[in-house]
Design brief:
Arc Repressor Mutant, subunit A; Endonuclease, Chain A; alpha+beta; seven-stranded mixed beta sheet; 247 residues; elongated; two-stranded antiparallel ribbon; single chain
């Protein structure tokens, strides 16, 4: 990756990057020489030098009565990134509380294509903890469309101790899958097409309802709403009782 492009990723860009690289290349310089080398006006150079000093990337000394600006070891960049990462990690719990707090309106997100649906499924692993359960309706599932991903997802779900209880439409792939119900923390009822003409998949967990369509246009929709989720959970329990009586 180009140096300027890499520096841009950590918010050192444009004229600020030019000043920083000028000091690195020269081993240190005055504002006059930095301005002459970069073509940046001297007042702007002073402003940018001040920013770089505040970040610990430059330091100032006096040589022959003139201010001289020298670069810190570039390893300082890694230290800055680690400090920012630590700061962000410290506030993640508070941000999560805000993110998961009750909303006056349902939050709805859409996911397109295979990669989008994978990202939607990942939300359940991020949201749930060991002992939690996902309630599912599975008509046309991802076993045929996303076989490798589904296997990996199930493995990580089981490792996290997250259970599944669901109603599945009978299909060869599904029946092969159900052989591993106990070890994959799954409780299932299998129904024939005539009783269960569902052509998508619905997952209900926490305060969310995820809907995946594996038709010609693969897409997913994730609804975050306590009220909607509670209603869907109640409907599922009725469907579960009915499915057991049919089965």
């Amino acid at each position: 990756m180009d140096i300027l492009e890499a520096l841009k990723q950590i918010n050192i860009e444009g004229k600020k990057a030019e000043v920083y690289l000028s000091c690195l290349e020269s081993g240190g310089s005055t504002a006059y020489l930095i301005a002459k080398k970069t073509g940046i006006k001297r007042p702007t150079v002073y402003d940018l030098v001040d920013q770089l000093m505040q970040e610990g990337l430059l330091y100032k000394s006096i040589e022959h009565g003139a201010k001289h600006f020298s670069p810190a070891d570039p390893e300082k960049l890694l230290k800055l990134i680690r400090e920012k990462e630590a700061t962000i990690k410290a506030i993640i719990p508070d941000l999560q509380k805000i993110y998961h707090s009750p909303k006056s309106k349902p939050a709805i997100r859409y996911f397109n294509g295979r990669e989008g649906i994978k990202e939607m499924y990942e939300d359940s692993l991020r949201t749930l903890k060991s002992g939690d359960t996902i309630l599912v309706y599975v008509g046309e599932d991802g076993l045929s469309d996303l076989p490798n991903y589904v296997s990996d997802y199930v493995e990580r779900r089981v490792a996290s101790g997250i259970k599944v209880r669901g109603i599945f439409k009978r299909a060869k792939e599904t029946m092969d899958y159900m052989v591993h119900n106990d070890e994959q923390l799954r409780e299932a009822v299998i129904l024939d097409q005539k009783y269960f003409p569902l052509d998508n998949e619905i997952n209900i967990y926490a305060n969310k309802v995820a809907i995946a369509s594996y038709g010609q246009e693969m897409f997913g929709m994730l609804i975050e709403s306590e009220e909607i989720t509670n209603s869907q959970r109640a409907i599922f329990e009725l469907a579960w009782l009915g499915a057991q009586s049919i089965n």
